[in-house]
Amino acid sequence: MIEENNILETINMIKLYNLDIRTVTLALSLRDCISEDIDRLCDNIYTKIKKYAKNLVSYADELADEYSIPIINKRISVTPISIIGESCKNPDYVKIAKVLDMAAKEVGVNFVGGFSALVEKGMTKGDELLIESIPQALAQTQRVCSSVNVASSKAGINMDAVLKMAKIIKESAILTKDNDCIGAAKLVVFCNVPGDNPFMAGAFCGIGESEAALNVGVSGPGAVRAAILAMDNKSDMSELANKIKQTAYKITSTGELIGRKISKRLDIPFGVIDLSLAPTPAVGDSVAGIFQAMGLEHAGAHGTTAALAMLNDAVKKGGIMASSHVGGLSGAFIPVSEDAGMIEAAQKEYINIQKLEAMTSVCSVGLDMIAIPGNTPENTIAGMIADEMAIGMINKKTTAVRIIPAIGKKAGQSVHFGGLLGDAPIMNVSNLTSDNFVKRGGRIPAPIHSLNN
Fold it and tell me: Does residue 370 lie in a domain region?
């Protein structure tokens, strides 16, 4: 008999447990758009995005109706703009950001990623100009997202870039303070950034990617939670892990089906499927809820890091059996503002930044969508970034920081974004100074295991 039970279970995941395709992201190389003239460059970018993405939204909507599978976001990621813009005699990165925003609006996508720079080992003039322009670019656009990679397991941590990004995060928050500092919510700092990630704010089209590709990000924490709750509460850890793997397999299979259908209609290659468990503020669609289903009283209880490690590993194992092209981040996300259970844990002070930092060592991202007091010093923010980068560098994994200094607000209050970005309780930050450490600058050397050629 054909997998009738699997088909019925997947239908129930969609109907009852918030399973969806979180994003279909068109990755698009802009390398052939390069020009010494800024106006010509902008025209080339606009024309290419319109050409390749004009049917992205309509095809995704058609397939969502055809298969009754929600496709929540349609997005574009492009070649890091620091590389594209530095070809100009007089580069104007804010102007490029506005063109990206205009093109994204024209084709109907909700975000465009790639206002980015890769500076783990050092900065070119183009990198510096782009980074300095980030606050204005994010304040003057709606759909543009930005990311900067400041560390890797091969290069170490560029502390000059870390310190600069702390300043940029603060400036981005200040310029958008009337909109709950949303500029900082569209900016992420990475270690070991992947070039095929379909999720925002860190998506961009890596240098080794093809001319165009369709990358898919699936979700489904609610489906995983429901599968665990349906088990005998005496099931041991191995049985629990197997159930998560089986569920991840079904989620990934669904995502790849949709991704390949859209890529065929767009006449571009299918890229990767990112099988991350991306939560939403909706009740029941929470990674924190999975921890409770496993037996923890709440996210933040002792054992949370162990539960997350098992969850992340089982998701990867189940997903990799369903697809030969798994990429991006692929694991479990723990964004505080976007997960109803994590929001509650932060409000009740079950979790703090130190606990979230520990959880980073076993999950897909890091300090993600965390609001901090608006008067937090830049050097303290730099110390937070450095800590996360160190976890990624030493463990050969991707880590990231997306923090929102809530200008004019203090711990215990909150910022409100709405939609998938949710609400972020403002969390306490250590009052101990990082000044003399982060001001040293230079580069923290790569670990010994980087010498593996």
Answer: yes
Containing structural domain, residue 311? 216-450
Distance CA 385, CA 382 (A): 5
Total domains in the chain come to 2
Per-residue pLDDT of the chain (453 residues; tens, 9 = 90+): 345 455 456 655 665 456 778 889 999 999 999 999 999 999 999 999 999 999 999 999 998 888 778 888 899 999 999 999 998 988 999 999 999 999 999 999 999 999 999 999 999 999 999 999 999 999 999 999 999 999 999 999 999 999 999 999 999 999 999 988 999 999 999 999 999 999 888 999 999 899 999 999 887 788 888 889 888 888 899 999 999 998 888 888 888 888 889 999 999 999 988 888 877 777 667 888 999 999 999 999 999 999 999 998 998 888 888 777 887 888 778 888 888 888 889 889 999 999 999 998 888 788 889 999 999 999 999 999 999 999 999 999 999 999 999 999 998 888 888 777 778 899 999 999 999 999 999 999 988 887 777
In a domain, residue 5? The reply is no
Are 96 and 236 members of one domain? no
24 three-state secondary structure:
strand
Q: Mark out the alpha helices in 326-411 (DSSP H runs).
A: 340-347, 353-360, 378-395
Cis? peptide before 201, omega within 30° of 0: yes
